[in-house]
Every structure is written in structure tokens, then in C-alpha cells.
Amino acid sequence: MTLIPQDVVFQIDESGSMNSNDQFNLRVEAVQNYIDGMRDDDRGTLIGFTLSAWVVNNRPLTYTDPPGKVALKSDASTLACSPACSGGTNIDSALQLGNNVLIAQGNTSRPRVEILLTDGRCEPPCTNTNNLINQAANNGLVIYTIGLGAGVDAAFLTNIAVRTGGRYYFASTAQDLAAIYAEIGTRVNRTAGVKIPNSQVSMIEDDVAVSLTVQPGTFVDPFTGEPRTPSFMQQTSDRTVLQWDVTRIQINETWAVTYNVTSNLVGVQDVALHPDARIAYMRWDGSLVFQTIPQGSLTVLGLPSPPYVTATSPPDGTTNVPVNQPIQVVFSEAMAAAT
After folding, report:
1. Would you say residue 53 lies in a domain?
2. Which CATH number goes with the domain that contains 70?
């Protein structure tokens, strides 16, 4: 397997609370370890943030060959501010600057990733986060978030990560950071495909024939049992369109959904309208893939008719039948003796 190069922006919180939550600057060591694990054709840069955000030493995305690693690790060292860190936690500022760097300098043929670490809540209050998340998602940027300590807003950080195809990690102490950064590095290198950047095209679309009626609320991941509701569902004159706005698929990951339909026709029915039902994504080599979902069919059976009585002995309508006389019944279908 060929590992695709990555462009990574490290956003590191330098607010005053880091003096107690990470008094030995282990966050810097964790980032430096990540940089050590990057390949020569990867690129990275660092952003520090308090009440505002800045690119450390104004360094653009830099290749992590041996000289590049030395430079980036030196940049990281300048962020080892404990025990003299100060200022607030302007997470929106860090997101905006990270987006700007990756959109302007990043290579769309490779993973473009932001790894944002904070130990607090937005200060000043974040008012533009939703727009920044949408900007990142629409440009194919993936944001991983790390919350350090009990003072973080886990729901806020989770929302940022999930909506961009990343993941939120909680570190109860600074000693947990090295393992978290290492796991993020592993996940970045396992990505097989992402949503096509700057496009309204969903990754997965199923087009259901008009003869089939999709049953809302029946969409399930067959492997986990978790709901897998479409992000878009519309019934038109000739079909029902279902779309899932998946942001990324990992190598060896299986994405599947099951749902129920009913039909007003009996017999063999097409399941997915070929070739409109499809998967669309961008591979890490920059190529766009449009793969049709193979045409399938199902057989719709008519409503079952229960067995009915065809004859009785004594015959139907007979009167004055003794109470203890056996009654024999003949059904329209063979019946199991046990029943």
C-alpha cells in the first residue's frame, strides 16, 4: 500500500490555564513526536492561539524532510509557554487561520488536516464556528479536536470534528496527549477517500424506483444497528432520491445501510436505478471516482391468503349434532400435524 502525503496544521492553545493543565509543556512534546513520524513528502506548520491566532514564525506549510523537521520542532518549542502562558482561548481565530492556510497552501490531492488542542472554552465567545465548520467541510478539510482537562466543552469540540470527518479526543491529563496524537497520525494515514471538495455532490446516492415506497425511520447500519438516516431524501415523479453526505471512508472500512420498502406491484422489481445510484469521492491521488451501484432486484410477493375450510363432517349447517361427536375439517392447504 502506498501512503499518501499529508498536509497538517497543528493549532495549540497557549492560554493561561495551560500553566496548570500542562505545566511541563507535554503538548509540545506530543506535537514534536508527531512531526518525527511524518514522512519527507508530508508538510506541516504550527499555529498558536490565545485571544488571537498566529502562524509560528510565519512559516508556510513545510516539507518534513530532516531540515524541515528541525525547523518545525523548533517552532513547536516556542509554544512551550508554561508556566508563563497567558490570555484567553479564541478557538474561532485558530480555526479561521487553519482553514486559510490549508485552503491557500494545501494540496487537494492529499489529506489536509487540522489538529486543534485546547484546555478551555471559547474566550471571547465563539460566534462564527458554524461558518468555519462549513468552510472546512466544503473544502475537504478534516479537523481533529483534543480537549485537555475538565474545563473543555466536549459537545462543542465534538461538533467541529464530526462535521468535518474528524474525531474528538478527551485527554484527562497532559500525559495522555502523546498517545492521542499518535492515534490521529494513524487515522490520517488510513483514509481511502473523501467527499469531493467544493462540490454539492454527496458521496453516496441511491435512486429508488417509483414503484417502491421507502419506509422512513428504517435506515440502519447492518453491522452496528445504529441509525443511518439519509442527509437528503426527496420523492419525485419517477423515483425517490436518497443521499448520505459521508465525508470520508477509511481503508478497509465497510459502509453499509439497510432500509425497508413496500411496493404496489407484484413480481421482480429493480432496487437501485442504474446507473444513477452511485458513489462519488476523491481519492488521495487527486482523482475523482464515480462508481455506479450494481443493479439489483427483489421479488415482491402478493399478499398471502390464509388457509380456509373447504368441507366439514358433519356438513356445514347440520343441526342436532351430539356434543361428543368428532368433527372433521378439510382445509384448502395441507396442514402440519403439529398445528
Report:
1. yes
2. 3.40.50.410
- The pLDDT tens digits of the residues spanning 76-111 come to 999 999 999 999 999 999 999 999 999 999 998 888
Q: Does residue 182 form part of some domain?
A: yes
What is the number of H-type helices and E-type strands within the chain? 7, 20
The sign of the torsion formed by the CA atoms of 60, 62, 67, 73 equals positive
Q: Mark whether 103 and 244 lie in a shared domain.
A: no
Going by DSSP bridges, is the β-strand pair 168-171/112-118 parallel, antiparallel, or unpaired?
Answer: unpaired
Percent of the residues in the chain that have a pLDDT greater than 70, as a whole number: 96
Chain segment 228-268, per-residue pLDDT in tens: 999 999 999 999 999 999 887 877 678 899 999 988 888 88
Residue 293 has pLDDT above 90, yes or no: no
* Angle at alpha carbon of residue 73, lines to 170 and 67, rounded to 5°: 140
CB under 8 Å to 186, separation ≥6 — which residues?
none
Report the Cα 29 to chain-centroid distance in Å: 29
Q: What confidence tens digit (pLDDT) does each residue in 115-144 have?
A: 999 999 998 899 999 999 999 999 999 999
In this prediction the pTM is: 0.62
- Of 162, 189, 216, the residue at which a domain comes to its end is 189
Give the residue numbers spanning the domain of 101: 7-189
Q: How many whole angstroms separate alpha carbon 72 and alpha carbon 225?
A: 44
Do residues 293 and 152 share a domain? Answer: no
- Tell whether 325 is covered by a domain: no
Read off the C-alpha cell for 128: 462564527
Three cell numbers at 245? 453526505
**What's the total number of domains in the chain?**
2
What cell does 55 get?
502562524
CA 123 vs. chain centroid, Å, equals 28
Query: Is residue 199 in some structural domain?
Result: no
Residue 254 buriedness (CB in 10 A; 0-12 / 13-18 / 19+): exposed
